[in-house]
Amino acid sequence: MKSDNDLDEVKIRHVIIIYLINCVVLIITAIAIIFNSGGEISGSNMNNLSLLSGILLLAMLSYKLKLSREKIGFLYKDFKNKINIKESIWIVAFFVCLNLGAIRLLTYIIYLISPTFASDFVNNFSLTINSVTDYLICFIISVILSPIVNEIIFRFVLFKRLSKKFNVYVGIIVSSIIFAAFDFSPEIIGALALGIINCILYIKYENILMPMLIYFMSNLFVMLLYIPTTGFKTDKVTLTLNSVSTDAILGTVLFTIGIISFIIFVIKGKVYLKSGFWENKCIDGTNKLYK
Fold it and tell me: Which of 6, 225, 265, 268 matches a 20 to 30 Å C-alpha distance to 117?
């Protein structure tokens, strides 16, 4: 991408190595916590491990990208000139509808098949919020670290490398599926949709900050408006046929609104998929394209 040209290339194998280093550090830290806490890792400790993981990944990726104040400043200036606030709000609005609707419908379908599995599925929390401190840590992870780290890994690296080797369609599909697979929870359908949305935005705006913004705004909405209604406490959700049926009705409405808008967005974005995205400017001033 033109505005990303100053950032050093990161290959998929580099990301795998970074993940392995991160896993080793987390395992060692987790073992130390287990020894100090009498053989158990609390929800707050899991939050701290997630925070450590995000910071380590961001630090290693920043080093590999050779980020500097000048490079970040150039990206931001380009981003500020291109950003469309109305479009961004529209995207976040329909994505939230799609995501919340999909969660309710998926939960309902799974409950009809296996109530026990459905209960385990909806209670698969990666983060635990039992206090204000937990909330602040989760806020940093969800709103700041996740958008930056995941967009660099799944859009800047994986999507771009796959598009270069194959084409943008393969890049979008494969990178989005892998992105969603890392989020095995009721939000898996929303994660898949977000992956596709952000790939298209990356192509359209030629700046990684644009998909980061959508990711940031979506998670900010959840943290500011959704989670606080639980009273800063993550309780185990108890499902009943009546509750999932009622949620399914609301989910159908939300999902219908979201999926229709999503399809409209994808159709409008097809023009950018046809042209591919910029790799690097040639000496003569023309551009090479990934197609």
Answer: 225
Query: Does residue 186 sit within a domain?
Result: yes
Across the strands, what pairs with 278?
289
- Domain range for 284 is 83-290
Q: What is the distance of C-alpha 42 from the center of its chain?
A: 25
Q: Tell me whether residue 177 is in a domain.
A: yes
> How far apart are alpha carbons 53 and 270 in whole angstroms?
36
For position 4, what pLDDT does the model report?
65
Q: At what angle do helices 85-113 and 188-205 cross, to 10 degrees?
A: 160
Q: What is the pLDDT of residue 39?
A: 75
What are the tens digits of pLDDT across the range 227-263? 666 555 556 677 788 888 999 999 999 999 999 999 9
Does residue 25 lie within any of the structural domains? Answer: no
Q: What domain count does the chain have?
A: 1
